[in-house]
């Protein structure tokens, strides 16, 4: 389940960043906040939301799965950090998605960075 949620959000944010790059072409504008990549590789399964928050701050967006456990809690939650920049045909985009289980522990992470 978390993998499907991760893929869904990765595709969504890739589209958002791509469209933002097109909209801002040549104007030197940015969307989101640049991701400090220092700790991206340090993200491990089992880490807490607090640890991720301490490293990266507040996420650009959050979402929860529509699948619930027997107590009505979402099975998974994802935090998305996104950044997009464009100026005179040059673009940069970064997306970090961290998926947490219902206990708030990391189960997966995905990071994508593009420079053109």
Question: How would you describe what is shown here?
Answer:
By secondary structure, this protein is α+β, with helices and mostly antiparallel strands. The protein has a single domain (2-115), classed as Beta-lactamase Inhibitory Protein, Chain:B, domain 1 (2-Layer Sandwich), CATH 3.30.1450.10. Helix content is 26%, strand content 36%. It contains two helices and five strands. Strands 1, 2, 3, 4 and 5 form a five-stranded antiparallel β-sheet that branches. β3 and β4 form a beta hairpin.
Q: How many DSSP helices?
A: 2
Helix/strand order, N-terminal first: HEHEEEE
**Share of residues in strands:** 35-45%
For this structure, the CATH topology is Beta-lactamase Inhibitory Protein, Chain:B, domain 1
Class in CATH? Alpha Beta
Q: Helix/strand/pairing class, anyone?
A: alpha+beta
CATH architecture: 2-Layer Sandwich
Helix content: 25-40%
Q: Largest sheet, described in full?
A: 5 strands, antiparallel
List how many beta strands DSSP finds. Answer: 5
From the alpha-carbon coordinates, what is the Rg to the nearest angstrom? 15 Å
Number of domain modules: 1
State the distance separating the first and last CA atoms. 33 Å
Shape descriptor reads elongated
Q: Which whole number gives the mean pLDDT?
A: 81
Low-confidence stretches: none
Layout of helices and strands:
Layout (H helix, E strand, L loop, with lengths): L1 H22 L5 E4 L16 H8 L4 E4 L11 E12 L2 E12 L4 E10 L1
Antiparallel strand pairs: 1-3, 2-3, 3-4, 4-5
